[in-house]
Amino acid sequence: MLSNSLVELDRAHLIHPVASWRGHEQAGVRLLTSAKGATVTDTADRHLLDGFSGLWCVNAGYGHDSIVEAASRQMRELPYATGYFGLGSEPAVRLAAELAERAPGDLNHVYFTLGGSDAVDSSVRFISYYHHAKGEPQRDQFISLEHGYHGSSTVGAGLTALSAFHQGFGLPYPWQHKIPSSYPYRNSAGTDDASNIAASVAALRAKVAEIGADRVAAFYAEPIQGSGGVIVPPRGWMKAMRDTCLELGILFVADEVITGFGRTGPLFACAEDDVVPDLLTVAKGLTSGYAPMGAVFLSEHVYNTIADGAGSSAVGHGFTYSAHPVSAAVGLEVLRLYEEGGLLANGRVMGARLMEGLQSLSDHPLVGDVRGRGMLAALELVIDKERKTPLPAAAEAGRRIFERAWDCGLIIRAFAHGCIGYAPPLCCTEAEIDAIVEKTRRVLDLTLEDGDVRAAM
Ligand code: PMP
């Protein structure tokens, strides 16, 4: 009864992110009521294995009392402190220091935001301040990757390469440029890792030459492209792109909103690739979704250039909820759980098991590609493996895949172009990882029986 009326209230009043509004009104909301570990429960008391950690954010898993205690203690003691007027709070200072200590290289300065989109937006603003301070205000052109996702604020949506985020805004802005991403499965230039990397480097050089070498402000990349379909570049790709940026004199920004905090193994995926970016953005796993928070890290030279450029004037960028004490307290406890609580270590072991399990599905007639790193993975489904032909009406097929997985008690992400994404909590057990793989096989078998899929094969 209660849940029926909530569905009606949702339909009437709550706008859902990245949804067909009319489609959602028809389908109605699926309400989740509680969660523990890697399992969420809905209003019908169904238990579902969350193979996507909410929205690739609940890296620590659900139901950690110590996080709840850290948040409630902070709420009781000091629920809010502004960072304006030179004020601050203990957890925010401590979290910044703990993160700086662990971040690659000299990314020692942390600006906290509310999530990933405003972390990306903040990075764009800081880069602009940086080039003005350096006396190069004409460096106002930004390059990012096809299939990339950098948030849905207006500026971030323009860096994002997914067309659904562009409609009606004149996006991308003329100063936002794209180059092809590495995409080993579909990149015709890259038949092997070395030529794949060389193609990306050549594309970046060509784009910089086209725009004008003294006009380019920065290049943005995700270490693994998440929302574009978990696209994993070859090892060495990021290092090559970073080195090319150094050579060309442009800033390199790593967007680790998804890959950070154990998702691919370490706290920062960059570190694994021996890359120190000029700026780095994070969110999601920073607080494991228990409270909203993102951050931008600035390297010493970026920070000092902006600081010296501004002198005694204010750097005009700030949010009411920057460095929110409750989120920071959550972040500190989450960080402790990753390290002392053994979650990073468990995630590494389970990530290897997940990849092995998904690899075992590669003999399935619909599985064209299996890719991933750590607890971040995808299957790319095709109807013809040799030609790599996508599923017919892939968006509709994706919707059916999501529904079937749900009916099998599994939450996964079905991307509109026929990829299935996985990002399970790092706390998963072996049995849970195996269940994710087994349930996926069942979903694939059911998809194979679909009339339109069979007709197209
Ligand atoms: N950058 C990347 C790489 C992301 O994956 C996301 C979110 N999926 C964002 C930025 C935006 O983060 P948020 O949704 O927290 O605004």
From TrEMBL:
Pfam families: Aminotran_3
Cofactor or coenzyme needed: pyridoxal 5'-phosphate
Molecular-function GO terms, alphabetical: transaminase activity
Keywords: Aminotransferase, Pyridoxal phosphate, Transferase
Keyword Transferase included in the entry's annotation: yes
Protein family (similarity comment): Belongs to the class-III pyridoxal-phosphate-dependent aminotransferase family.
Protein name: Aspartate aminotransferase family protein
Natural source organism: Chelativorans salis
